[in-house]
Structures are given as structure tokens and as C-alpha cells.
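User: Show me a protein chain along with its predicted structure.
Assistant: Here is one chain, sequence first, then C-alpha cells.
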Amino acid sequence: MQQVAILLRTRESLSTGKTTKEIVHLITSLDHNKCSAKRLLELKRQYWDVENKLHYIKDFVFGEDRSTIRALHGPQNMSALRNLAVSIYSASGIGNIKRFVDNIKYDNQMFLKIAFGV
């Protein structure tokens, strides 16, 4: 342990307008001479950027948290397939993956047209 930091988060709910404050304690092995408080905040924000962009899609669109696959390498394999799907959709320029996945449930040829130009 090299550093301990306190982060005060303030959030405003868009639907209710209610503001909440939360104090979070950060512990890191990064040396304070190499990683300033500003850099710690950047790293924390980058973490949430990944969480919001990738993990949210995997959880919300593909139901990763609800998955009951537990045996052997099943969880890792399914996670890899979900990552592949998100990568293909993103590389194909699909902005709203949730809407796209909902639509291909009813027209599975749409996926081939958009993703592979078939």
C-alpha cells in the first residue's frame, strides 16, 4: 500500500433531481511520486468508463449477470463470445447495441447484412 485517498462523489438523478453525496476510500500500490491525486482520479474515471461502456452492455443486453453457466470453462467462453459480439457490433458502426440486438431477434438476416455485408 503506497497511497490512501478519499473521493467525494456527488450524483444527481436525472429522473428525480435528487442529489446524493458519497465518500469513497481508495487504496493503491501506486507511489505518490509517480501517481498524483489528479492521476488517481483519471484512473478511477477510466475504470468507470470501461464499466459503463462494456460491462453495462454485457450485463444489460446479454444478461451476463443472470447467466447460470458455471461448469468448467463455460463462463469464460461465454464472456469471450459476448466480447466478440460487442466488438463486431461496434466495428460495424452500430451505435445502439440494445436496439440492434432486439431487432435481430425478429430478423436474424439483418445481423449478416450489417456485420458482414452479406
